[in-house]
Amino acid sequence: MVAANNHYDALVVGGGFGGIYMLKRLLDQKLRVKVIDAAGDVGGTWYWNRYPGAMSDTESYIYRYSWDKEDLLSYEWKEHYIKQPQALAYLGHVVDRHNLRPHMQFNTELLSAQYNEERNIWVIETSTNETFTCHYLVTALGLLSKQNWPDIPGRETFKGEMYHTGKWPKSHDFKGKKVGIIGNGSTGVQVITQIGKENEVERLVTFQRSPQYSVPSGDGPVSEDYRRKINDNYDEIWDQVRNSAVAFGFEESTVPCMSVSPEERRKKFQEAWDLGNGFRFMFWTFSDLTVDEAANEEACEFIRSKIRETVKDQEKARKLQPSEFYARRPLCDAGYYEQFNNQKVDIVSLKEEPIEAITEKGIKTTKQEYELDVLIFATGFDAVDGNYTRLKIRGRDGESLKDHWSEAGPESYLGVCVNNFPNMMMITGPNGPFTNIPPTLETHVEFISDTIARAEKNNPRNDGTVVKGAVIEPTLDAEKGWTDLCNKLSENSLFRKSPSWIFGANVPGKKYSSLFFFGGLKEYRRRLQEIIDGGYVGFKPF
C-alpha cells in the first residue's frame, strides 16, 4: 500500500536541465509533482561529469534556459564556453530562484516502474525502499548518462587508481603520476587537453581507438561590449535558434562546398577555425559536408593539415590524423593537438597495437606493457536508450521497454512517448532531434507539459486511491512511422557511414540503428505544431 503523500500527479526522474524545467512547467499547471534523482543534488550530467576540462560545446549565452528573460539578462557568464562548475552553479541557481528544491528528492534512484492499467497509474520502486505512484511518469534521464565500460580482460586486477569520466570523484591528485587514458572522443579530448596543460603528471599516455577531427573552441573572456550585444538581441537570438537546423546560434550555410574555388573553400574553413566551435565548422562553412563525400574530404584535409602544422613530432602527427569521414559528433577543444608537443604526453594507436589486457601494473598491448598509476576510461556512454533498457520499466501487460525495443532497436513517437507505455513521456528519448541540447530539451518539455495540460482539461480525475483520467499513448503505426522517418532522414548522411555512438556503434552487441531525428530543430518543431493543430495526430484519443 502506498502512502497517500507518496502519490503524485507527475513523477519526474532526473534533476538535470530537462527535469528542472519539467518540474517548473508542471508546478505552474498546479499539478502535484516530485523529482527524484540518484545524484546528491541537481545537475544531471553536470553533477557526474566533473572530470578535468569538462565544458559544454555550446556557447554560454545559449547554454541556459530561454524562458526567464530577466535571468538571461542578469546572470553572469564570463567566458564564451561554460565549464562544469559554472553549469552546475547555474542549474542550482535556477532551482533556488524558482523555489523548486522542496519538490526534489536526491540520492533516490529509480529501480523499477510498472504501469497499472486498472488504476491508470505508474508504480515506482526506488533505492530508498520507497514506493511512489503517479499518473504521469516523465523521464529526464539524459542522452549521455549510462557509462560504457569496454570489455577488456583484467580490469579488476589493476592496482592503481581507476576512474570513468562519467562518474568522476570530487577531487583528484595526479601530480607526479603516470596516467593512461582510454578513449579520445569529446570527453577524452577535454581530459587529455586539461591534464596535459596542468603539466604535473610524470607521464600522460592516451590510448587512441580512432583519431578525431577537432577544431578550436574559440573560448576566452567575454567583453562587456559582447555581453551588451547579446543582451540587446536575446529575443532575436532565441528566435533564430528555434528556427535553425542545429540550434547553435549561427546561420547554417546554404552554399555547397564544391561550388566555390579551392581558395574560397580554404578561406571559409580558416574563418571557421579562427571563430571556433565544431558545429560551426561543420554546418556554417558549407551546406553539404555531412552528405557529400568530396565536400567532406575537403574539410577532412583542412583539419589534417592543421594537425600536421601543430604537432611537431611527425610520428605523433601521423597517429593523430584521421582517415575516416568527418561525420561524428563535431568536436572542439582548448588546445588538444598542442598537448602532443609536450614530451610528457604520448599516444598509442590501438589500431596498430591493440590492448591485450589490463594488468596489475597498467595496460598490456600487443607490443609492450605500459606501467600506470592512474587509468582513466573516457569511453563514453551507452547513449540515448542505455539508461532506459537497464531499468525495469514495464508498460501494459507487463511488457518491458527493453523487450519492446529488442527487435528493431529503440523506437518512439517524436522521441517523447512509446506505444504500450501509457502516460510515460521521455525528454530527449530515442529519435529526438540531433540538435543543441538546451533548446531541444525546452521543446520537449513544452510539448509534454502542453500535452498533459490538454489531457487534464479533457479528462478530470479524482485524487483518491482509484485514479483514472487520461491515457496519453501513441499508436503503434505512429511509432513505426516516426522511426521509419528517422531512418529515412539519416540514409544519405555520412554520419550513418561513420561508426559512433550516434548510431549505437560504440557498444558491442547493440543494434545499429538511427537514434536521432536528423531533420533539424525548425522542422521538428514544425511537425510538433502540425500534430497539435491536427488534434494530436498519431495519439490515441485522449
TrEMBL record:
Record bears the keyword Phosphoprotein: no
SUPFAM superfamilies: FAD/NAD(P)-binding domain (SSF51905)
InterPro entries: FAD-binding_Monooxygenases, FAD/NAD-bd_sf
Keywords: FAD, Flavoprotein, NADP, Oxidoreductase
Any Pfam family matching the protein: Pyr_redox_3
PANTHER family: DUAL-FUNCTIONAL MONOOXYGENASE_METHYLTRANSFERASE PSOF, L-ORNITHINE N(5)-MONOOXYGENASE-RELATED
Protein name: Cyclohexanone monooxygenase
Source organism: Lithohypha guttulata
